[in-house]
Amino acid sequence: MSIQAPTHIKTLLTRLHAASAAQESSLSQSLFYLKRNLLHFLFGTTWSAASDDHMRDKFVALEPEKCELVYLLARAAGATTIVEAGTSFGVSTVYLALAVGQNAKLRGEDGVKGKVIATEKEPSKAARAREHWKEAGREVEEVIELREGDLLETLAREDMPEVVDFLLLDIWTPMALPTLKLIQPRLRPGALVIADNTTMARGLYGEYLAYLRDPANGFKTTEAPYPGGLQVSVYLPEA
């Protein structure tokens, strides 16, 4: 792994990634994604209660190589405040927590401890995520603040950090742009914004990608050629 972490955390991540990969490679999951894309292109359908039921026990975690890139980008950016929209079982959150904790330690400033604000709407997933973070230990668990419920409400609270260094979007695609717009006023110049599966679900990400590519909105963006796609954007507003 391209991460700085104790052996027990690497072992935990290997186990969780294996479980996630087994789900993603199943026939039922492949058919679910195919049906979802077809319904969108044919009828404009985006999501349903049945979709929620199907995904309730699914990891939908970023693949290991994407998680390692996210970790390295967060380290390179010196990020100490990260927002993760769509935590699920908390796999990618471990990488983010390691990065911000290590960045804060490297800076060595009093009062700078690093924080990952994680979001999850499904209570059963939030509970599983907390179990995984507890297993990872204090280095991970103490860095994460999990906000349960509608992220457009939990991320709009007055106790949000004034400055956000990094935003990871791994959520229901129609929520990507509203979430970005909500967090954008807090993004520092040079902040990173990462969105997953932007190739596989390009049609569903249409408005989000158009927003990123509009020069008026202050982003420079590119597609990293990982399976499913990974949109990497940097916030560079003009002075």
From TrEMBL:
It comes from the Eukaryota. SUPFAM superfamilies: S-adenosyl-L-methionine-dependent methyltransferases. The keyword Amino-acid biosynthesis does not apply. GO terms for biological process: methylation. The keyword Transferase applies. Keywords: Methyltransferase, S-adenosyl-L-methionine, Transferase. Gene3D superfamilies: Vaccinia Virus protein VP39. One of its GO terms (molecular function) is O-methyltransferase activity. Belongs to the class I-like SAM-binding methyltransferase superfamily. Cation-dependent O-methyltransferase family. This is S-adenosyl-L-methionine-dependent methyltransferase. It comes from Dichotomopilus funicola.
